[in-house]
Amino acid sequence: MKKNYRIAVLPGDGIGPEIMQEAVKVLTLVGELEGVTFTCEEGRIGGIAIDTDGTPLPEETVTLAKQADAVLLGAVGGPKWDQNPGNLRPETGLLGIRKALGLFANIRPATMHSSLVDASSLKPEVVSGVDLIVVRELTGGIYFGEKKRYDGPNGEVAEDQCIYHEAEVERIIRVGFDIARKRQKRLVSVDKANVLESSRLWRKVAERVAADYPDVELSHQLVDSCAMQLVREPKQFDVIVTENMFGDILSDQAAMLTGSIGMLSSASLAAGSFGLYEPVHGSAPDIAGKGIANPLATILSVAMMLRLSLGMDEAAAAVENAVWSVLEAGHRTGDIAADRSKAIGTIEMGQLVRDEL
Ligand code: ATP
Ligand code: MG
């Protein structure tokens, strides 16, 4: 294991800086406990970068990220920049950095911690014990295929091409297997192979790659069936791997099983061990600057970074367990509190996690 890691920290806008501060403090403590130095270097992205650099993604930030072992990102955007033209929108910075870093795999865990079962709108017996991960392909498929609009004999026609290359499918399937191998060793590959040619290639590649992972059980589900199973019996899933559009939809669906946006972390991986880690939620302008944002999604993103980019599995589990213990003890920020009058703030929540750690 390396003893010194460079982490690019991009707090962004809205609640970004507030939640990032707590996440970095947790990371620093992990470093002290493990005898590892995390050199955190801050960069600008999103609205703040538009204001100071005139672009949502300064070249300097891209360089900083590329030189780092991993990137931690807060959130970008806010009403101040909502009317800006496309090239001056905070979200453009986010798309830009994902592209610049070659991120091709999006990883979104949905874990229902028992003490938060009440936060879900689904039945407790359905959601308690849910612990799954959706692995979504990010660079191919229908979102990136050629798009056309033209006039046909019966009015306008629209086309969206869906293309997948074998190598592109293979690398994401391998990410799915690698993650499943570290968990319950059950991988569900989701496609629409009864209808789509790209899905038939997807399934063929999944079958071929499976030979390299005899310890992992591979099964296939059609996307419509998977959508149904996710609400009917989500506990059956360990790791789901799927293409871009299906993953877009299924990862949001899976996220809502847990019912609390302030708890959801995510990773986007490039080749090798490099990755970008961020909470699923946005910049929450409505509560920015109030000190009440839930920092746990960002802290759990730090845990994902430790596991997936830095190979520090035990430290990752320690951070996750610290979060679960704090929740078990009944501490809540406003977004997950049954009784908001008893809710604690961002800094207090961060401190409790560190105390537990
Ligand atoms: P996007 O940035 O994808 O456009 P959005 O603006 O619709 O998303 P968010 O910024 O995630 O959504 O906020 C949605 C709601 O959830 C808001 O009311 C916000 O205050 C709340 N929220 C989001 N993140 C948190 C958090 N970490 N803690 C507390 N509340 C949050
Ligand atoms: Mg938003």
From TrEMBL:
What the record notes about the co-factor is: Binds 1 Mg(2+) or Mn(2+) ion per subunit.
- According to its UniProt entry, this protein's organism is Brevibacillus porteri
**Can you state the subunit structure given in the record?**
Homodimer.
**SUPFAM superfamilies xrefs:** Isocitrate/Isopropylmalate dehydrogenase-like
- What's the catalysed reaction? (2R,3S)-3-isopropylmalate + NAD(+) = 4-methyl-2-oxopentanoate + CO2 + NADH
The protein's site described by Important for catalysis is found at 143, 192
**E.C. number(s) listed in UniProt:** 1.1.1.85
* Similarity remark: Belongs to the isocitrate and isopropylmalate dehydrogenases family. LeuB type 1 subfamily.
Pathway assigned to this chain's UniProt record = Amino-acid biosynthesis; L-leucine biosynthesis; L-leucine from 3-methyl-2-oxobutanoate: step 3/4
- Asked if Metal-binding is a keyword of the record, the answer is yes
Q: Which HAMAP family does UniProt cross-reference here? A: LeuB_type1
Residue numbers binding Mg(2+): 224, 248, 252
Q: What does this protein do?
A: Catalyzes the oxidation of 3-carboxy-2-hydroxy-4-methylpentanoate (3-isopropylmalate) to 3-carboxy-4-methyl-2-oxopentanoate. The product decarboxylates to 4-methyl-2 oxopentanoate.
Taxonomic path: Bacteria, Bacillati, Bacillota, Bacilli, Bacillales
Which residues are recorded as binding substrate? Answer: 98, 108, 136, 224
Main location as per UniProt: cytoplasm
Gene3D superfamilies noted in UniProt: Isopropylmalate Dehydrogenase
Q: What is this protein called?
A: 3-isopropylmalate dehydrogenase
Where is each Isopropylmalate dehydrogenase-like domain found?
6-353
Q: Which PANTHER family match?
A: 3-ISOPROPYLMALATE DEHYDROGENASE
Keyword Metal-binding among record annotations: yes
Q: Which cofactor does it need?
A: Mn(2+); Mg(2+)
Residues engaged in binding NAD(+): 78-91, 282-294
The EC category is: oxidoreductase
Alphabetized, the UniProt keywords read: Amino-acid biosynthesis, Branched-chain amino acid biosynthesis, Cytoplasm, Leucine biosynthesis, Magnesium, Manganese, Metal-binding, NAD, Oxidoreductase
